[in-house]
TrEMBL record:
Its EC number is 4.2.1.10. Substrate binds at N72, D85, L99, S100, R109. Catalyzes a trans-dehydration via an enolate intermediate. It is an enzyme of class 4 (lyase). It comes from Streptomyces cyanogenus. The keyword Lyase applies. The lineage of its organism: Bacteria, Bacillati, Actinomycetota, Actinomycetes, Kitasatosporales. Pathway: Metabolic intermediate biosynthesis; chorismate biosynthesis; chorismate from D-erythrose 4-phosphate and phosphoenolpyruvate: step 3/7. Homododecamer. It catalyses: 3-dehydroquinate = 3-dehydroshikimate + H2O. This is 3-dehydroquinate dehydratase. The keyword Amino-acid biosynthesis applies.
């Protein structure tokens, strides 16, 4: 069984990207912590980070067979309609994660076109948010 860990634009440079906002963990650190969190259940992680929406759509389509997904869409939260439609057809629970507390930031970050489809949304907990999302997916999923 595989868990999809999907990260959108500008998230491949975590660690060096506005660390006062996004923290100092790298995406590799996050991928490792999610992999460790689900390893006991025998799940593996398929980690995909892309800068463009079309490639993220493709990654969702290619991974409809995964057991669940963690998605940080980056700024595509605001108007990522084709990513939203790809996730609408995703058959398993998935959780939207944002490292920063988007509600404490600019108003253009206060809306997500994806969030209504998510099982849950975690914001503002930094890299821990991904690990907590993995725990939530474990709890939601038998076997
Ligand atoms: C983000 C929040 C978004 O508003 C921003 O565009 C990002 C990162 C976060 O993880 O806090 O790229 O998704």
């Amino acid at each position: 069984r595989k868990l999809l860990l999907l990260n959108g634009p500008n998230l491949g440079i975590l660690g060096k990207r506005e660390p006062e906002v996004y923290g100092t963990s790298t995406l590799a650190d996050i991928e490792e912590s999610v992999a460790k969190t689900v390893a006991d259940r025998g799940w593996q992680v398929t980690a995909v980070q892309r800068e463009s929406e079309g490639e993220l759509v493709q990654a969702v389509q290619d991974n409809y067979g995964t057991v669940g997904a963690i998605v940080n869409p980056g700024a595509l939260m605001i108007a990522g309609w084709s990513l939203r439609d790809a996730l609408a057809n995703y058959p398993r629970p998935w959780i939207e994660v944002h490292l920063s507390n988007v509600w404490a930031r600019e108003s253009f970050r206060h809306e997500s076109v994806l969030a209504p489809l998510a099982s849950g949304v975690i914001v503002g907990l930094g890299a821990d948010g991904y690990r907590l999302a993995a725990l939530a997916l474990l709890a939601k999923t038998a076997g």
